[in-house]
Amino acid sequence: MLVVMRDHATPEEIAHVVDRLHEAGAEAHLSQGEVKTVIGVIGERELIYSLELEGFPGVSEVIRVLKAYKLVSREFQAEDSVIRVGGSQVGGGVLAVMAGPCSIESGEQMHTVARAVKAAGGTFLRGGAYKPRTSPYEFQGMGLEGLKLLREAGDEAGLPVVTELLDVRDADRVAEWADVLQVGARNMQNFMMLQELGRMKRPVLLKRGMSAKLEEVLAAAEYILKGGNRDVILCERGIRTFETYTRNTLDLAGVAALKSLTHLPVIVDPSHATGRRDLIAPMCRAAIATGADGIMVEVHPDPERARCDGPQSLDIPAFAAMMEALRPLAALEGKSL
Amino acid sequence: MLVVMRDHATPEEIAHVVDRLHEAGAEAHLSQGEVKTVIGVIGERELIYSLELEGFPGVSEVIRVLKAYKLVSREFQAEDSVIRVGGSQVGGGVLAVMAGPCSIESGEQMHTVARAVKAAGGTFLRGGAYKPRTSPYEFQGMGLEGLKLLREAGDEAGLPVVTELLDVRDADRVAEWADVLQVGARNMQNFMMLQELGRMKRPVLLKRGMSAKLEEVLAAAEYILKGGNRDVILCERGIRTFETYTRNTLDLAGVAALKSLTHLPVIVDPSHATGRRDLIAPMCRAAIATGADGIMVEVHPDPERARCDGPQSLDIPAFAAMMEALRPLAALEGKSL
Amino acid sequence: MLVVMRDHATPEEIAHVVDRLHEAGAEAHLSQGEVKTVIGVIGERELIYSLELEGFPGVSEVIRVLKAYKLVSREFQAEDSVIRVGGSQVGGGVLAVMAGPCSIESGEQMHTVARAVKAAGGTFLRGGAYKPRTSPYEFQGMGLEGLKLLREAGDEAGLPVVTELLDVRDADRVAEWADVLQVGARNMQNFMMLQELGRMKRPVLLKRGMSAKLEEVLAAAEYILKGGNRDVILCERGIRTFETYTRNTLDLAGVAALKSLTHLPVIVDPSHATGRRDLIAPMCRAAIATGADGIMVEVHPDPERARCDGPQSLDIPAFAAMMEALRPLAALEGKSL
Amino acid sequence: MLVVMRDHATPEEIAHVVDRLHEAGAEAHLSQGEVKTVIGVIGERELIYSLELEGFPGVSEVIRVLKAYKLVSREFQAEDSVIRVGGSQVGGGVLAVMAGPCSIESGEQMHTVARAVKAAGGTFLRGGAYKPRTSPYEFQGMGLEGLKLLREAGDEAGLPVVTELLDVRDADRVAEWADVLQVGARNMQNFMMLQELGRMKRPVLLKRGMSAKLEEVLAAAEYILKGGNRDVILCERGIRTFETYTRNTLDLAGVAALKSLTHLPVIVDPSHATGRRDLIAPMCRAAIATGADGIMVEVHPDPERARCDGPQSLDIPAFAAMMEALRPLAALEGKSL
Is A29 in Cβ contact with C31 (below 8 Å)? Predict the structure, then answer.
């Protein structure tokens, strides 16, 4: 941590900061220029985090050079993490393709989609049983019954299944039926849920919050790893900006940055990022060219009658055609598909 | 709902949309210009919400004129809601002042603050027992023990107490000890928590999410009212923007807008909005001049040693001085303080 | 400037940075912790600005503690600048009120507004002769003819006039007719215009860019002061965020921050910030309570027929009523109105 | 244009809007539901733009379905525009590669870079002679002398040259020396400059403003086309968001969207978008996979000594290696490189 003093801070102000540091058990290293004094602070991670010196007299700025995370960093583990689920995997030279409807609506729907996802080369089946909806007047999902339909369809097609955990109280129940537990963007900083998932044995798909900085994504993942669960997959799904043409702004440079900051696999969800069917295929291509470890795509047998996210869902032929077109690109990037 | 067709959409495309509307049970009203056709859609609220026509061939834009909320709107209830808790109230000609430390640290700390808040004219005691922290290496709060200290300090000073509910599983326990349950910015769209609070009898302080639009704030409150709990207080605490000088950007025009859109009381938290001690007093003044129903301020007996948010906390003399200076302003705005 | 090295940067990487600093003529001060090395850099302002060390091997972050401005800072001049124009002034215990239509439309319109602004206690007449419009199909202003109408109306009413300079080539011509030259938000970083204004003798009203950080506002003003013109008034007019209910997000905490960072006067324009007539009065109140030196308000004799910005313009009775209501508030803040 | 009335708007309010429309010469089509009335407005483009009905009594929302642009749209011209400059081109099955230093520093620097850009397969030489800099204390460019060095280096290597026009008064002079005139992000809405460029014969490279919506980018280009100059290249260079790890947020979904909204070619500048050398290659790949018509990259013979943007510049071997690696990807996308 660096404490930058105001221009011409008085010796008393500087001494006051140094005293507080010593009192707390940290070391202080002074670097004094003609107008600026900077105090380097050295100590234990937890100690440094507990020190908030921004409001001290004479202090201009406090800069934290210590990151908010450790276990998820490339410094801690240089080689890529690979998450294996059933016969599928995320990371490590394979392109993961998680596909399925926004919400589970019926057994027939799920079986149709599952077979189509498998046939096209998809590696995970996704589907929402509990839906986070802005308004209480929107469809909230089928719940437990939906989970069972998802499981059956996945089993029949030979695909592991991914679904969102919306309520921490349902963690065990959802884990009973699903292979990968998804934390939605709105729950990325639901720390109680993250802690609970840290204690569980199921892989977690952690979606980036709508206004989460990269460091906050990594700190959220750190909660899960610190709890003992190392199987975390990160997912970029667009951030909220001033642009309204797309539902969110897909941050692919953020994906490239995450790949260098962490050993965890990173996938991309262009459906939620753009909210527009016609942008899904180009953004899947871009994600693969960026080096992402996988894609997550909404597929529905009849998007015009979908109960949720129809406008950003591909129908089955469009999904199959896109997958076909992605093959040579994935090969070029050294990923099997 | 309005469906705006693309320029020169074909009759088939228009008929396709109209058919889908009729199939779903809605009425379609066509308005055709030379190049543009617009289809007005009329039907039940739930029905309209379930229709997503954005991806239909020939459709350019779908505009929802039906709002995502109803019970919280001024149209539904014209007169201001007033929330009464113990001897204090929020809304209705009284300026609510919720003050106290970011986190509860000890009985002595809480008693000192509680007495000082009461003496200066504060009307609620706030304090966090469970703390949402970006990094798992930061202080996470005292938990249940903290709740008890908060209760005792509030009782002794004669102040109702406000505290954050961080885990939906703790709802009953926290409600046992606190008068007002706070939903933090990160949980504003934790819909499971909102539904649980809808079933409870405790007033709720709902903080605006970091990237929540006003309509989303109102839709989140709607979840609680729809569940049966009408005692909701909204709180503006800054939104996340590109500006980094302040921790967030305080949206006071949003407060004025909320006051016209909803009958619920709206308070302002300048501590979290700005993250800077020197901006608290001017932003409290601005909030009152905007017409806010109250303020929420972090006060600590020794901000330099606070375990959380010290840089944005006032010490006791500064809080007392600010309160003194706010009195004539509150009077000018017709609010008792 | 501080150069923060990556954890465990090698001695060679550190030496490489230090060598580059010495080569450029700067001093390097090392502060070495167990895992982190930080290099403090000391030298001339221009030299420091020319050094970009972010991409050097082993460098994690470069932090500029030297600000991008000097002459505009409180450190450089502690007392408030006061700008005097005709009988009016901005700063120094007087609340400046700049009012008038978005665009100049006719002599009659301008005379009507000018008299009304004066009668209500306004101190400057504003009006646009050259209009920046998103689309080339929108009304672009009356140009020189409009300038003359503005001048006449201001002279008749005894009000100095403010107008936007849209084209740097018109600087002399506009300065011939106007008392204060406004730089619009879209031109805040039109550095050629800023340099031209630095050479002129007219006060400048510099509006904050839609996505400008506070430091960038101050650096833009620095261009003008560095050129020799010290009469600069800053104007907050809302920043662009994800919120769409208001046209922009008014950043009043930014105004309070600017008041502490610079000696220049700061005024607030709620018309452009909110884009909504009903929010103008509450935001004028909030601006005054924040400590702003003035307000800028769009007033039109017939907003429903205005050629520009009608929805965010007050009519004359509403303006007069608002001014009346602002008087006791201004008095409370120690400002004459 | 659609005028959405408030719930239960009175017949008088509706009639008032309709009267105003008729008075202005527009047609009004009413569509009345049980609670909502919507008025469709039909008339000439310029007329519609002049109508601002947001503030009328009873009006809830005004929705403009008419776009702010026409000549640049796909509806107006379905086939891709191709811009030819010297032997190079932008659009039409060729991947344009514009490379060179941020700022022109010397003849030797430019010759070295020009030869290297040509050798690696680049198709345009870029270099800044006039630099827009946040602070007046930063290097401002070599001016006219720099332009000449750029021209010489381009001619020698057989590359057309691109440079930024910073001051509208320099338009003719810069056009004398450069093949393509660049409008920087800060000038995207400098409408006077856009109008001047509309009258000129030189192709224009129009960079997206830091906080410009896609529709605003297109409306800015419309100014140039409306003036008579149809040779406009759009350039995505990142937008400003809350994320600070990268300098800006590269909006590749915006690039895909632009490709469907306009016939103009769209290129991508990952150097300015990310500000980080290590993200340039992945973002060039992603841009090509998105369907962009070209890339713009900063290349410097000695980035550590660059006077501007060194941290986001590639050195010559890194540029050559990247170009080599891009070839199979460009081929896969059907673009010659």
Answer: yes
Query: Model confidence at B283, in pLDDT bands (50, 70, 90)?
Result: very high
**DSSP class of D121:** T
Q: If DSSP codes are grouped into helix, strand and coil, which group holds residue D253?
A: helix
Q: What are the tokens at C172?
A: 């002399």
| CA–CA gap between residue C19 and residue C22 (Å, rounded) | 5
Residues with Cβ within 8 Å of residue A251, at least 6 apart in sequence: A236, A238, A239, D243, D249, D250
Contacts of C64 (CB under 8 A, 6+ apart): C1, C48
pLDDT band at B49 (very low <50, low <70, confident <90, very high): low
**A-contacting chains (≥3 CB pairs under 8 Å):** B, C, D
DSSP label of B152: H
- C190 shares its domain with C261: yes
Task: Identify each DSSP E strand in C91-144 by its residue range.
Answer: 96-100, 124-126
Instruction: Identify whether residues B54 and B149 lie together within a single domain.
Output: no
- CATH number of residue B213's parent domain: 3.20.20.70
Query: From CA B232, how far away is CA B202, in angstroms rounded?
Result: 9
Residues B111 and B30 grouped into a single domain: no
What helix, strand, coil percent values describe chain C, rounded to 5? 40, 20, 40
Query: Do residues B19 and B102 share a domain?
Result: no
Q: Any idea what the Cα angle at residue D78 is, between residues D72 and D79, rounded to 5°?
A: 100
**In the block, which residue shows the tokens 């244009």?**
D1
User: Is B199 in CB contact (< 8 Å) with chain A?
Assistant: no
pTM exceeding 0.90 = yes
B120-156 confidence digits (pLDDT tens): 999 999 999 998 888 888 888 999 999 999 999 999 9
Q: Provide the terminal-to-terminal Cα distance of chain C, rounded to the nearest Å.
A: 45
Could you tell me which residues come within 8 angstroms of residue D145 by beta carbon, excluding any fewer than 6 positions away? D129
Residue C213 tokens read as: 């950080």
Predicted pLDDT of residue B246: 96
The answer to whether C317 and C281 are in contact (CB under 8 A) is no
pLDDT at C286: 98
Check CB contact under 8 Å for C243 and B256.
no
Whether A186 contacts A206, CB under 8 Å:
no
The answer on pLDDT for C294 being more than 70 is: yes
**Collapsing DSSP states into helix, strand and coil, what is residue C137?**
coil
- Look at residue C74 and tell me if it is in a domain: no
Cα separation, B48 vs B59, in Å, equals: 17
**Which token pair is C310?**
């009608």
- For residue C144, count other CB atoms closer than 10 A to its CB: 14
Chain center to CA of A283: 17
Same domain, yes or no: B315 and B203: yes
Burial of D261 (0-12, 13-18, 19+ CB in 10 A): buried
Cβ–Cβ under 8 Å, residues B255 and B284: no
The answer to whether residue A324 is domain-embedded is yes
Q: Please classify residue C6 by burial: count the beta carbons closer than 10 Å to its beta carbon, then call 0-12 exposed, 13-18 middle and 19+ buried.
A: middle
> Exposed, middle or buried by CB within 10 Å (0-12, 13-18, 19+), for B318?
middle
Residues A139 and A282 in one domain: yes
Domain range holding D14?
2-63
B199 and B52 in a common domain: no
The separation between CA D33 and the C-alpha centre of its own chain, rounded to angstroms, equals 42
CB D171 within 8 A of CB D199: no
Chain D residues with CB under 8 Å of C186 CB are 189-191
Domain count, chain B: 2
B96 shares its domain with B190: yes
Least reliable range by pLDDT among B98-112, B272-286, C263-277, D56-70: D56-70
Which 226-285 residues of chain D touch chain B by CB within 8 A?
Answer: 240-242, 244
Of C187, C304, C309, the CB nearest to D20: C304
D-chain CB neighbours of C133 within 8 Å are 191
